[in-house]
Specification:
Elements lengths: L9 H12 L7 H18 L13 H14 L4 H9 L8 H19 L5 H13 L9 H8 L1 E7 L1 H10 L1 E11 L2 E10 L2 E13 L4 E13 L14 H11 L6 E7 L3 E6 L4 E7 L1
Antiparallel strand pairs: 1-2, 1-8, 2-3, 3-4, 4-5, 5-6, 6-7, 7-8
Helix pairs in contact: 3-4, 5-6
């Protein structure tokens, strides 16, 4: 093509080819508008006050790639063109991020206003995320230790939804505070009979590359309190509650396969009921 149009910049030849592919006639107003924007962009690149990716070390192919991305993203002003070139390497949101956003949105809407989003839709999103799990060996300490510390909140737990409906009691928020190998769990409940917090504390560790174990050994029940606490003075019958908690926490239900893990989302399975629980890092 350059043999026929030696005086035209290579990017204009590509522009001409694309407009022909799009079947835009040269008399079409849309063609003329695109052409005007192209020339504005092209000459903006030549001005020294606009930062471009076309330095001496950049090949013609790389220049054309950067310019093409910028033409598609920017308007005809110099500043916006420069910004588009700077942002040309920004990645398009992946399927993974789209799934996470949709899952968290639907789960929170369901919890807040009783949204009628079918459980099957949420379960479908959870299954797909597990298929795309970006972390190898998510149950191993080498994988979870760099990102586990902090506050996590359960955003989807179908068995809790069922329990809430049967007992006419709302359980929310359900939170976990993780630090090194220590874990503190706080569950807020509200019902016709009152409100308060159910709390537990202990340790967690890796069983194998895909499974973690939690060992709770301290428990408290805060009745009518606004904030959770493990302190005996804040708990109802602390010695009795601690004893009941330890007796009821069985090793057989303390292991949890981790099926998805990244820096701000975790999905693990609750084996006794075969359900998946989704927790988001705050």
């Amino acid at each position: 093509a350059e043999n026929f149009y030696p005086h035209l910049p290579p990017s204009l030849l590509i522009f001409d080819g694309l407009t022909k592919m799009a079947r835009l006639d040269h008399t079409n107003p849309l063609f003329l508008l695109i052409l005007i924007n192209y020339f504005t962009f092209y000459y903006a690149l030549q001005t020294p006050n606009v930062i471009t990716c076309n330095d001496a070390a950049t090949s013609r192919r790389n220049w054309l790639t950067s310019a093409g991305l910028a033409v598609a993203a920017c308007s005809s002003t110099k500043v916006r063109c420069a910004a588009a070139l700077t942002d040309a390497s920004t990645e398009v949101p992946t399927e993974l991020e789209d799934l996470k956003r949709k899952l968290i949105y639907l789960a929170k809407q369901r919890a807040v206003d009783g949204s009628s989003s079918p459980v099957s839709d949420l379960d479908g999103l959870v299954r797909r995320l597990c298929e795309l799990n970006p972390t190898s060996s998510p149950g191993s300490k080498a994988s979870y230790a760099p990102i586990s510390d902090g506050r996590w909140r359960v955003v989807y737990a179908p068995h809790i939804d069922t329990l809430s409906k049967l007992g006419r009691t709302k359980f929310d928020p359900i939170g976990y505070d993780l630090s090194d190998d220590k874990i503190v769990s706080n569950v807020r409940y509200e019902s016709f009979f009152g409100n308060g917090w159910l709390n537990a504390a202990g340790t967690f560790s890796s069983v194998d590359e895909n499974v973690t174990r939690i060992n709770f050994d301290d428990f408290s029940w805060n009745v009518g309190k606004d904030h959770p606490s493990l302190a005996d003075k804040e708990s109802v019958l602390p010695t009795l509650i601690r004893g009941i908690g330890r007796a009821g926490f069985l090793p057989s239900i303390s292991q949890f396969p981790v099926e998805y893990l990244d820096k701000d989302l975790c999905i693990f399975k609750f084996p006794p009921l075969g359900v998946r629980i989704v927790a988001q890092k705050l």
